[in-house]
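call fold(seq) -> tokens
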Amino acid sequence: MLIAVDAMGGDHAPAAVVAGALAAAREDGTELLLVGDPVKINKEIDEIGGARDSVEIVPARQVVTMSDSPVTALRSKRKSSIRLCGDLVQEGRAAAFVTAGNTGAAMIVAKMVIGTIDGVDRPALAGVFPNPKGRTVVLDVGANVDTKPGQLREFAVMGHSYAHEVLGVESPRIGLLSIGAEKGKGDEITKQVFDVLKTTGLNFVGNVEGSDVFGGTVDVIVCDGFVGNAILKSAESLVEFIVSTLKDEFGSSPRTRLGFALSKPAFRALQRRTDYAEYGAAPLLGVRGGCFIAHGRSNPRAIRSSIRRAVEFCAADVAGKIRDKVAELHAQEELLLSVKGRR
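ret:
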């Protein structure tokens, strides 16, 4: 199982990416294809040392920057590191790719180069959030702004498969994000999706609210990418605000500094649970291979975690499970239409 890594993607590339990749190779034995400028990659490897036997460098002459249009990787930068990562997965040479680069370009490459699973209209980006009992998968968190009921049903199938296969939840509870828990709350799309999700055979528990993202009441929350991205960005900024505020308050007097020293292990545990670097990249679900999009400012630990998520994803054949469940739902729909047609 080879994982392709975009060595040139991210605010701290290639240094942070190469360091994280080597950590994954050294600690987990993961075999990697590092895609990017060979001179820069080799320089970083030489400085860090070790794990070279588990890493193969795939030369890339171009880089898609954060300011480039997402379609640049398809049209004018076909030899870019992010595009070549997609090519490697499409050709079957890599099982998945990881990038901390241009999110839009990664999604375009995944959809247009790797291709979507048969029956999946739109891939969805899944965010993983901590809760008191484990983790909550929210999708979509940014890939699709406008969605239809059938697409949100696909998101539920994808979220179920990821929570079950990767997070180990036996029967993931699936909730539909709305402005109230009662049936009938929300806009017209939400009301339509509520009825659609009841027919999937999944463990759909009904509508949920924003408080359920961190509440642990459900394992998967389905929403469109506009709302999901707002949740993701709000959560990230809230965590940063809390950490920054606590640092300021604990340093304000000798008494608070003593209190911090005594409670340091608890705060470190909290920081680990809320740190994006622990969870790594978000998977783009619904494509034929694995695509993991990490935060642009990912450090080596975040890259290592992202590669681990990609390995877990591929080992559990999540894409295959999604393909089978989507095919099952479409077969059920065709059967119902056939029965109605004979009446």
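The chain has a mean pLDDT of 88.
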